[in-house]
Write a structure and sequence with these properties.
Blueprint (H helix, E strand, L loop, with lengths): L1 H26 L5 H11 L5 H11 L8 H13 L5 E2 L4 E2 H36 L4 H14 L3 H13 L27 H38 L2 H8 L4 H23 L1 H14 L5 H11 L2 H29 L13
Antiparallel strand pairs: 1-2
Helix pairs in contact: 1-13, 2-3, 5-6, 5-8, 5-10, 5-13, 6-8, 7-8, 7-11, 8-10, 9-10, 10-13, 11-12, 11-13, 12-13
Length: 340
């Protein structure tokens, strides 16, 4: 129980620290927040600057002329009440924007995580059992090469290769957007809409999979080779246990543990890289709106996306710690049960 309380306390402290640092950095940006937004709106419309300024100041969560301490206290109070503020870029409440954006980002991350885990697990195990063969050597080279490719380069290549291909089957994967157009498929939890959403999420997910599976597969290979040399595996072979049981119960279960925690902790990288990746595909998830917020100096939306990303990373780290001791019977919940 003390361990769980300790980890919960660390998670809450991390959330508070990230929100505080992000707020101070956003507040320290040169120039007035209100003036910057007013200039942007006035340039694209014929509304009087005074009217725009009054409208903006009425929607801010804090007084723009207040000190950083007063603004911080006001912001944290509103945040604890569930108010994330108003976005001037999207002309909507931040909570409403993120409520719609988070599921799209989670869809891509789920597809990418499941894809990387399945490919890395199977490929790494086969490479270990066929150590030194042409299959092992070829996949080691391919895995090393794909790992060195930046995810955004893979995204551009996928768009060129798949998104604009003349092959009929390749036209299934649209290179822009996160869902089918409303005039083609009515939004809702229907087979047609879900299938359309999966099609739009395929290319962003493949960008993660292509550039991330190699390192995990090589890690699985190394872990499997090390596990194959353990005494308990040799004893199981001498006892005449079926090779399938040895591979699954003895080798696979122990070799997959580092892969499992690495996969969970890679969620932070996926969320961070989504800022660029979702802009490339014009995929309106959390990363897309973070980029738009930073570009327009939209502090409420910027802070909201920071908070969402931090919460996801903290939850993933907490889950990795808790479940690691469940998967590995050699480790008990406690200070020695941490997954990293």
């Amino acid at each position: 129980m003390n361990w769980y309380l300790k980890r919960t306390g660390q998670a809450l402290f991390t959330l508070w620290a990230v929100v505080t640092i992000a707020f101070v950095l956003a507040w320290s940006v040169p120039g007035s927040l209100v003036d910057h937004i007013v200039d942007q709106i006035v340039q694209s419309s014929s509304i009087e600057p005074a009217v725009v300024r009054e409208s903006i100041e009425s929607r801010l969560m804090f007084d723009p002329d207040a000190s950083v301490t007063e603004a911080y206290v006001t912001y944290m109070t509103e945040l604890l009440n569930g108010n994330l503020g108003y976005s001037f870029v999207a002309s909507d409440d931040v909570s409403t924007i993120l409520a719609e954006a988070v599921p799209w980002t989670l869809l891509v991350m789920s597809l990418a995580t499941l894809g990387m885990f399945a490919i890395s697990l199977a490929l790494g195990a086969i490479m270990a059992y066929r150590e030194g063969s042409w299959f092992d050597i070829a996949n080691t080279i391919v895995g090393t090469v794909t790992t060195s490719i930046p995810y955004f380069v893979a995204a551009f290549l996928l768009i060129l290769w798949i998104g604009y291909s003349d092959a009929p089957i390749l036209e299934l994967f649209p290179p822009r957007g996160q869902k089918p157009p409303a005039h083609e498929v009515e939004p809702g939890f229907t087979v047609a809409f879900v299938w359309g959403a999966l099609r739009h999420a395929t290319l962003p997910a493949l960008s993660y999979i292509v550039t991330g599976y190699g390192l995990l597969a090589l890690s699985m290979r190394g872990n499997s080779i090390q596990t194959l040399g353990e005494d308990y595996v040799r004893v199981a072979e001498l006892r005449g246990l079926p090779s399938r049981r040895i591979a699954l119960r003895y080798v696979g279960r122990n070799a997959v543990l580092p892969l499992y925690t690495s996969l969970l902790l890679s969620i932070g990288f996926m969320l961070g890289s989504s800022v660029v990746l979702e802009q490339i595909f014009q995929y309106r998830g959390v990363g897309y709106w973070m980029y738009e917020a930073i570009d327009a100096n939209d502090v409420p939306l910027m802070m909201g996306t920071f908070i969402v990303i931090t919460v996801c990373v903290v939850i993933a780290t907490f889950v990795a710690d808790v479940t690691y001791s469940m998967l590995d019977p050699r480790i008990k919940s406690g200070d020695q049960g941490e997954a990293y």
